[in-house]
Amino acid sequence: MILDRARRVLLVAGLPAVLLTAWWFATRDSTSVFWPPLADILRAFGPTWLEGRLTSDVVPSLLRLAAGYGAVIVVGVALGTAIGSSRVVREVLEPVLEFLRAVPAPVLVPVIMLFAGIDNTMKISVIAFGCVWPVLLNTVEGVRGVDEVLRDTGRTYRLGRLTTLTKLTLPGASPQIMTGARQALSIGIILMVISEMFAATNGLGFTTIQFQRTFAIPQMWTGIILLGIIGVLLSLLFKLAERRILHWYLGIRHTQRKA
């Protein structure tokens, strides 16, 4: 057991340790303004982010991400369930959805700014527009792919619409919904940064780009590293939530692999 855990820790931490070591030695004697030694970047990390900017920049960014992502989960799953449950609705909306999905969210920033201003509404709207498609489309496909046996079982027992939705349809589609939610989380982090680069006064994206414009290069690198750390932590939180929500599905897969 202990050896297995040590092996897993080594597998997880091995490559990052090698990359950091390579970065350290590659920049150790660097005199380039744009490629400072890793030691300088690490020394700048604490004073840059832990002495005020944690609450003035990091927390506002995460709150915007949470608001946009939360709205996407609610709207995407609700719309996806409605579209996936009706062939007629799906055929009517599919061309429009494909068109909107093809529009990159960053190009809509100027348009959204015209209607929503430059405050948090604009940034949350950009995050929501870019994130909604993986959740929506995966929910549609998940609902469409629900086992016909389950549908027939619901009809046989004359289950009501709400019971069928909550007990059969959504649980059956949940593996695909979670796949879309995972993709949306990565897109949300990217759009959080991009939306803060336009007419913002705080946030991770705003602060990092300000460091670049004022040639505070080590501080700029700390912003990039912090975004990576936030991405890893959010991914771990998502995996924990996924294990709780899909415990029945993961159990089935584990049993099938052993068989």
Walk me through this protein's architecture.
This protein is mostly helical and 259 residues long. Helix content is 83%, strand content 0%. The protein contains 11 helices and no strands. It starts with a helix and ends with a helix.
What is the chain-wise order of helices and strands?
A: HHHHHHHHHHH
Unreliable stretches: none
- Largest pleated sheet: none
Distance between the termini: 23 Å
Number of helices: 11
| Annotation, overall tally of beta strands | 0
The chain-level mean pLDDT equals 88
Helix percent band: over 70%
What portion of residues belong to β-strands?
A: under 5%
Structural class per helix/strand content?
mainly alpha
Radius of gyration: 23 Å
Describe the global form: flat
Task: Offer a quick outline of the entry.
By secondary structure, the chain is mostly helical. The chain is built from 11 helices and no strands. It is flat and about 75 Å long.
Question: What order do the helices and strands come in, and which of them pair?
Answer:
Layout (H helix, E strand, L loop, with lengths): L1 H26 L10 H12 L3 H33 L1 H16 L6 H8 L3 H25 L3 H9 L4 H35 L8 H10 L3 H29 L1 H12 L1
Helix pairs in contact: 2-10, 3-4, 3-6, 3-8, 5-6, 6-8, 8-10, 9-10
